[in-house]
């Protein structure tokens, strides 16, 4: 944490998607590291969101707006002059994307292009980390993890929109922010692909932990649609630290790290949805789970794993927690959020995470 603190102290960091699950944690983490945080996003989804409960908006520059609105986005860059941009804003749900494919593409593809254009035109900004997902790879249901140089793809509109965003990022890098011509443009841009992220303060529907907590809090049975799906689970702090380490390396060596990066768990933390729900119930102390899978369900990948060798060897990043620790810390947040201020709760968990 000390190394990150030394680097991020007084840096101006723009986070798009700061009102969301990962963005709220990232805002708190960066605030604790001493950065000046500027957030640009739509409003939070619910009054229970970590962004709302933690009252992080009082400690940062909180701007509400749409990444599809190029003019407003550019104004934020011009006014706040961020050193570093962490682009997280997205329509982030697979099932929602089947009902809203155009919105998903507008936000995830054109929105990302708008962020890159604003970044490119802002002379003060030097580093951009663009968040996509592990689902950006063409899923072959293979038994080993995807590597950064594998083909982009995606079956559903969400996954394919992120695969498309990756192709756009690669094109913008080659065309406008090419490391070979760094002296002309002074920009470094990378993309990051994380696995399934869990942690306190997420209430979005159709994600396993929020679904479990909502059922457990109302004494209902947890219904599992896709019990056998295998995912790379990790605590939200794991990829966020990876993004921050990467941005620091890009700042220090701008032509060395501007490429795609996977951030996922060790292979022991790759497990089924059913197993995660079972562990969540054990940690909560009560609850029941039911398999409601059906042949009519929308297509979702069954097997998805990431190879994290590159981040381990080139960045020195590595997951700190196994699956049991990840679920324990996550459920601990949901057990405490009604009695402890969630800013303090997140800071306690951040300190615990860095002490591991
Ligand atoms: N949660 C995961 O398991 C996971 C895994 C891999 C990748 N990701 C990626 O990480 C990023 C953050 O995910 P999350 O889980 O925090 O999602 P989230 O849905 O909780 O947050 C999304 C954020 O984006 C903002 N947003 C959405 N559309 C916008 C628009 N048009 N203009 C401005 N802001 C907009 C929302 O207001 C919110 O702040 C996303 O890019 C997502 O695809 C998430």
TrEMBL record:
InterPro entries: CDP_4_6_deHydtase, NAD(P)-bd_dom, NAD(P)-bd_dom_sf
Alphabetized CDD domains for the sequence: CDP_GD_SDR_e (cd05252)
Domain NAD(P)-binding, residue spans: 14-330
Transmembrane segments: none
Gene3D superfamilies, per database record: NAD(P)-binding Rossmann-like Domain, UDP-galactose 4-epimerase, domain 1
Domain of life assignment: Bacteria
NCBIfam families, A to Z: CDP_4_6_dhtase
Alphabetized PANTHER family for the sequence: DTDP-D-GLUCOSE 4,6-DEHYDRATASE-RELATED (PTHR43000)
Identification of the protein by name: CDP-glucose 4,6-dehydratase
The organism of origin for this protein: Psychroflexus lacisalsi
């Amino acid at each position: 944490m000390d190394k990150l603190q030394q680097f991020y102290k007084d840096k101006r960091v723009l986070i798009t998607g700061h009102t969301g699950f990962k963005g709220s944690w990232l805002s708190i983490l960066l605030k604790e590291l001493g950065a000046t945080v500027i957030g640009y996003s739509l409003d939070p989804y619910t009054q229970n969101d970590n962004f709302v409960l933690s009252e992080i908006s009082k400690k940062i520059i909180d701007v509400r707006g749409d990444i599809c609105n190029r003019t407003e986005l550019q104004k934020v860059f011009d006014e706040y002059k961020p050193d570093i941009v962490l682009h997280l804003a997205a329509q982030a749900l697979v099932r929602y994307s089947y009902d809203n494919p155009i919105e998903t593409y507008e936000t995830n593809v054109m929105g990302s292009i708008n962020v890159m254009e604003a970044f490119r035109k802002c002379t003060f900004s030097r580093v951009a980390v663009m968040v996509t997902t592990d689902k950006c790879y063409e899923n072959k249901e293979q038994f080993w993890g995807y590597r950064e140089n594998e083909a982009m793809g995606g079956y559903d509109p969400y996954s394919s929109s992120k695969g498309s965003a990756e192709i756009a990022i690669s094109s913008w890098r080659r065309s406008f922010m090419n490391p070979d011509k760094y002296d002309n443009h002074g920009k470094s841009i990378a993309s990051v692909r994380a696995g399934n992220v869990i942690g306190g303060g997420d209430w979005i529907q159709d994600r396993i932990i929020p679904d479990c907590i909502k059922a457990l809090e109302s004494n209902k049975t947890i219904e599992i649609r896709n019990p056998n799906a295998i995912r790379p689970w990790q605590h939200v702090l794991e990829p966020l630290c990876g993004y921050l380490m990467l941005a620091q390396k890009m700042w220090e060596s701008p032509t060395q790290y501007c490429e795609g990066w996977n951030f996922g768990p060790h292979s022991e933390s790759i497990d089924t949805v059913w197993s995660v729900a079972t562990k969540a119930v054990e940690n909560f102390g009560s609850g029941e789970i039911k398999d409601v899978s059906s042949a009519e369900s929308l297509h979702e990948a069954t097997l998805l794993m990431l190879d994290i060798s590159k981040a381990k060897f080139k960045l020195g990043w590595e997951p700190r927690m196994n699956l049991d620790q990840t679920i324990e810390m996550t459920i601990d947040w949901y057990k405490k959020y009604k009695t402890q201020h969630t800013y303090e709760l997140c800071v306690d968990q951040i300190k615990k995470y860095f002490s591991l």
